[in-house]
Amino acid sequence: MNPLSSLPILSLLIWLPLAGGLGCLFLRPVRHASRWIALGTTGVVFALTLFLFITGSSKNGWLFFEDHAWISRFGIRYTLGMDGLSLLMTLLTAFLLIVAVLISWQVSPYPDFFFSLLLLIECGIMGVFLSLDLVLFYLFWEIMLIPMFFLIGVWGHARRLYAAVKFFLFTLAGSLLMLLALISLYLLHGQQTGDYSFALSALIHTQIPPNLAWWLYGSFFVAFAVKVPLVPVHTWLPDAHTEAPTAGSVILAGILLKTGVYGLIRFGFPLFPGPAHASLPILAVLALAGIFYAAWIAYAQNDAKRLIAYSSVAHLGFVILGLAAWNLTALEGSILQMVNHGITTGALFSMVGMIDQRAHTREIARLGGLWTRVPVLGAFFLFFSLASLGLPGLNNFTGEILILLGTFTTHPVWAALALGGVVFAAIYMLRLVQGVLWGPTKGDEPWTDLSGREALVLIPLAILVLWLGLHPSTFLEPVREPVQLLLQGSMFPSMPGGMP
Length: 500
What we know:
Elements: H1 9-26, H2 33-56, E1 64-71, E2 76-82, H3 84-103, H4 111-130, H5 134-155, H6 160-193, H7 200-203, H8 210-227, H9 236-243, H10 246-271, H11 273-278, H12 280-299, H13 304-325, H14 328-359, H15 370-373, H16 375-388, H17 395-410, H18 412-437, H19 452-470, H20 473-487
Antiparallel strand pairs: 1-2
């Protein structure tokens, strides 16, 4: 346990963003107060997570743990825990929320409401990555949904209402199935032990009849598969990305999609080990289907943002394939690839937003000549595109090679098929680069090259792309113990508390 474990630092990571969001609303009359509050709040949260990463990433077990009685009558507790896996996910969340604030600096209308929603999303995501009580987890899972719905519906593009409602209905349907399953698990555990509890530490010991276990696992799996998203429940994602404001796309691709994979690792497999392990071939089939289908659809897109959205489905297919391979190398590659994808795709969505502000279009056919028109912006776009297609030395390559190597050791056919997905990724990304950077310049109005604020967004992202590509062990070390415990069938080193 970390020496600072007596401090409620996990609660600070969750509730500081909520306090900042309320501050944005209360100080509405003060000009530009909301964006500075949002930047200050996300900056403090990032500083906290970075401090935890620097001081705790080499330690084993729970780095921080909080457990307090909440609704004792129903066995609901306020239980939070941070191990290496949740440490990495919270660090990614804190960093990308700063990116989301900076790229939305001049948002209109209603900037105060916009920034308060961004901070509420951060509150929900942090809660998802830190909760160890299933009711608490479900509460934060739903908190993520509401502000994203409004971000898309109010500040999105032409078909924003359609995209927002579709996003809401897909994710809500999966969430309701998970709610029914966790209530059933709660009642079953209470009948067996006399202890009615939603604590994960208690529920993992529930004896579940095989047929019921499949139904309960299936309910959790659907909720997480929608959020990943896996084919065929992926159709909400391209519409949400296309219509969302740039910050919404960065958060969706960079963080929200990872909560589905995290849910499988943290809850799905520990609670239902039998059905979960039996479903690994199904996961592999869905992953491979997503890799190839999304790559094919991405190549056909004329909207740059929609192309990157479909590429997210393909990249998350690799993450799920590593989970399906079920060995140390592949699982570490999957977790690393979640971070890689968040950085690279967040950067690409940010850049498409910057280009759209200048060109007033995202259509590849109407773009072109950026290399000569805005050379610095063009150089960054090329760099992140090469990272996305898996160029050796950049971040996506390290995650993909670990996934492929790990998969090959146990399922060489899966790995051979997935290798074709790498080729397809190169094809659609090079098509995007060719259409945006080269060719004749469209229009004759002058463009400004990269601004200082935009450079402040892109330079740290570029540094992380290089760091993850050249020295990935920095980010692999924290997750080694959680992955080993997962493979051994014991997700938790030790868990104090959690009992009413």
